[in-house]
Amino acid sequence: MTLLLRTTAGRILEVHRRVLEAMWAYTQVHPKNTEAGGILVGHERQQGNLVLDRFTSPQPGDRRTRTRFHRSVEPHQELLNLMWLASGCTRTYFGEWHTHPEPCPTPSSIDLRSWRKHLKQEEARENGLHFIIVGTAITRVWHANQGGRDVTLIGETHTEFRV
């Protein structure tokens, strides 16, 4: 099943279930679990819908604690480059994801600063960027347009993980 959401630009974002399920494997259900994260990767359909069907998982060099995740640039960029080439140059950077050790995740001030920094960069392009936080009970998705300061919650779903 695909999660269908409407972006702030009025486009439909299709988030593949297998992407969510793979992220849910990093849900912080135990006190010793550290935050995890990576980048979101997808492509645009001819009809204008956006398809989020790939992501990167935590990589060597990422800094992970119980309440912080800092993504190392190089290994995630290398994976994105491979996905870009393997897709015939159609899959691209869609945004960021990470986990929080709380049931219904809310972006921290650090998250919001980081997201706004990404939105100012060329990587945001015309589709804006998407941000996913996996909480222990709810997974939430935000969207913002390039250069925008407002990051808008566009949807959520129950976090489903296997212990």
Outline the biggest β-sheet: 8 strands, mixed
Number of strands: 10
Beta-strand residue fraction: 25-35%
Give the domain tally: 1
Name the average pLDDT.
92
The CATH homologous superfamily:
Cytidine Deaminase, domain 2
**Strand ordering within the main sheet:** 1-2-4-3-7-8-9-10
CATH class: Alpha Beta
Poorly predicted segments:
none
Radius of gyration in whole Å, from Cα?
Answer: 15 Å
* Secondary structure: helix percent: 10-25%
Distance between the termini: 22 Å
Organism: Deinococcus metallilatus
Protein name: Integrative and conjugative element protein (TIGR02256 family)
Pfam families: Prok-JAB (PF14464)
Domain JAB: 18-138
Can you walk me through this structure?
- It comes from Deinococcus metallilatus.
- This is Integrative and conjugative element protein (TIGR02256 family).
- Pfam families: Prok-JAB.
- Keywords: Hydrolase, Metal-binding, Metalloprotease, Protease, Zinc.
- By secondary structure, the chain is α+β, with helices and mostly antiparallel strands.
- The protein has a single domain, classed as Cytidine Deaminase, domain 2 (3-Layer(aba) Sandwich), CATH 3.40.140.10.
- It has helices spanning 17-24, 73-86, 109-120, and strands at 3-6, 12-15, 37-44, 50-55, 63-64, 69-70, 92-99, 129-134, 138-144, 152-158.
- Strands 1-2-4-3-7-8-9-10 form an eight-stranded mixed sheet. It has a two-stranded antiparallel ribbon with strand order 5-6.
- The model has no long low-confidence stretch (mean pLDDT 92).
List the helices and strands and how they pair.
Layout: E1 3-6, E2 12-15, H1 17-24, E3 37-44, E4 50-55, E5 63-64, E6 69-70, H2 73-86, E7 92-99, H3 109-120, E8 129-134, E9 138-144, E10 152-158
Parallel strand pairs: 2-4, 7-8
Antiparallel strand pairs: 1-2, 3-4, 3-7, 5-6, 8-9, 9-10
